[in-house]
Amino acid sequence: MDRPRTDALPSPARASDHGPGTGSGPAVGELCDRYARVSTAAVNDVLRARGLTCQVLPHAIAPVRDDMRLAGVAFTIRGARSARLEDEMEERAAMLEQIPEHSICVWDTSGDEESAQWGEVMTMAAQRRGCRGAVVDGGVRDTEKVLGLGFPVFARYRTSNGMLGRFRMTGWQVGITLGGVAVAPGDLLVGDLDGVIVVPRALAEETLVAAEGVERAEVGIKQMVASGLDPREVVRRGGYF
Questions:
Q1: What are the tens digits of pLDDT across the range 68-93?
Q2: Beta partners for 199?
Q3: What are the helix and strand counts (H, E) for the chain?
Q4: Are the beta carbons of 223 and 232 closer than 8 angstroms?
């Protein structure tokens, strides 16, 4: 199994902790809270303007419930189909104990189509660590109970199949790829009904500030449209569609 990295994410936020990739600026929790208030569309537009056009995770990875939103720092997990049982639960426990506050557990399943990598008990354990959500390129089970816990989960499918004897982790806090999109430990993940987008760690703060600006600008654009201005006049005044 890949050696877990313990230095790739900030420890639980304190007053002196700052955002990813910076020596100053908002604390990690504040950064995530602010990302949770902007849309993935606004974040996408900012990244596109910087030449980053392949940051959206596969379309099939969707919220388990439409109103779910998430924003947090990537805690990456990699795994594959496997029937090996030795020390499997011990490895799961070790992974769960390393989840930092304000993280999003993001799973690269190597294309697994059979198992649920996320469920009720794992949700409870992650919540106690201050985890903000899970993004699974695979399955979720105990769906009704997970929904009752108010924990945002984005996944490809639902199934009653547990991982044991079908799938196991091969590493965590390593670089992963989901549908051709690279995710590194510490990247920012933002998710809503339009899917999940990955913000590189080094660009986290500037992307957030720009996305907040996009949303403020759109208030004026929508007011112009609502007032009855012709589309070409809206564009002439700096608007867009």
A1: 999 999 999 999 999 999 999 999 99
A2: 188
A3: 7, 11
A4: no
